[in-house]
Amino acid sequence: MTGVRLLTAPTTGPDDISALELLADNGFGTDDVLAVVGKTEGNGCVNDFSRTLASAVWEPHLKEAAVTVFSGGTEGVIAPHVNLLVADDRVDPRHQRGLVAAAGTTPAIPPAELGRVAHMESVRDTVAKLVAELGIADDDVHLVLVKCPLLTSTDIAGLRVMGVEPVSDDTYESMARSRAASSLGIALALDEIDTDTALAALEGRRHAWSNRASASAGAELKSCHVLVVGESDKAANSLRALHTEMKDAYDLDSLLSAAALVSERGGRIRQLFVKAEADPSGTIRNLRHTMLTDSDINATRHARAAVGALVAAIKGDGAVYVSGGAEHQGRPGGGSVTIVYEVDPPRFTPYNTTSEGIAR
Question: Rounded to an integer, what distance in angstroms lies between the CA atom of residue 13 and that of residue 70?
Answer without folding.
Answer: 13
